[in-house]
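Cont'd.
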Amino acid sequence: MNAQLQFRDLTLGYDRHPAVHHLNGGIDAGALIAVVGPNGAGKSTLFKGIVGLLAPLAGRIELNGLKRRDIAYLPQVADIDRSFPINVYDMIAMGLWRSTGLFGSVGGNGRAQIHHAIEAVGLTGFEDRPIGTLSGGQMQRVLFARLLLQDARLIVLDEPFNAVDAKTVADLCALVQRWHGEKRTVVAALHDLELVRANFPEALLLARAPVAWGPTPDVLTPDNLAKARHMCEAFDAHAHECRVDAA
Amino acid sequence: MPYDILIAPFLEFDFMRRALVAALALALGAAPIGVILMLRRMSLMGDAMAHAILPGAAVGFLVAGLNLFAMSIGGLIAGLLVALLAGVVARVTELKEDASLAAFFLVSLALGVTIVSARGTNIDLLHFLFGNVLGLDAASLVLIAAISTLSLLILALIWRPLVLECVDPGFLRSISRAGAPVHIAFLGLVVLNLVGGFQALGTLLAVGLMMLPAFTARFWTRDITAMILVAVLTGALSGYIGLLLSFHAGVAAGPAIILVAGALYIGSVLAGPVGGVLRQLFPKRHLEA
């Protein structure tokens, strides 16, 4: 049996230094899973691997029945040029890329979808505002509206709730729940453990190597969390070649 | 009287008419490219590419003399080659694109001047560097017009991914592989428009008609479409006023056009409604919350 997203002895990293080390396991279609771990645990690296921005150093990621365009990705630090003269509406409309492609126009149906997405993130009335005038939380709402339009089967969110207020977290979390209800797979990196316990049935605790993976209450135990903190020690510039045999 | 000053020179003199058409066509093609370059923080890119064109045009000159076609093709090849090499070095090695571009255009410039001075005279060198907008023949006009038409068409075609790559390159990478080809097509347009401007304004001044109107437009609007319109109009106006200035005051035409564009820019820095100096010195009272 194959999960929608299968990691096989996956090692990801930079310059031969692994940031995710020998990860095995699978994420089933429709799962709602939180990836938890200290800074530097390899969460962002794992996500870059999943969406294809980073090639594995060893092992592989199998996307079973998923194409690249079925994956939507919200990076931790989006390299968005906020000074670019584009308004909220056009920014969100880019989420329709799958149906419009390079040249296609946004038809009446598309405009209705955009309208609904803007409404769903609570930005009605902000359509004509340049993105440079938005607050951090409003910008995050814009990015979630764009994700809505992407209509992806796998949604990868890298620390989506950083530096946003409680109201925004609650609103955006509701969207995540809605995606879960629509049987989409959602993988999110998070630091707020209470939020994870309340919203995510499954969790992966990562500290370069996986510490625990399973139902959230079994993963987020004090023992596991202490272990994760301990494992995530400093980067060793003189590390030896890894001798673990490929499985 | 205004008729004699503003319109008659173009009706009476063929060379003035040609120069005006060339300036208008250049403004139409180059100004939108300049706006994108500015928004991508690549404003000095045009300058670098203008230098990079030189050896190609010089080789064309060496082979065929002051032949329009040979020099344009040579310039185009040299420009594209430098853009591509710089892009490849930037992607394959640790060096960033601005640094690798600077390296190639400096070598290219030295090579160009060497080639021109080995064969030509100082007059040729001046022609290369500063063009001859009052001496354009029909073939040059056709070339310039064709380049403007082509670049507007291509720009329309690659507009969506181009804007997306400016605003959110990470997002474009995650949904499409169009980023790299679009980037290359855009660099091709930069080179193409500089080659077009090269005939009229020379390699160094051609950049002026590309970038100055774009900077000017930034002070008048926050909307990208309006920005492009303002830039095109500014470029066209610079061409028109610059040629009149050259005609009546007897100054060199090419530099006059760019100086007018420069004056419009400085005027906009001071008086522009979007972030201009005067607006900042004398701000209006803040609004209600």
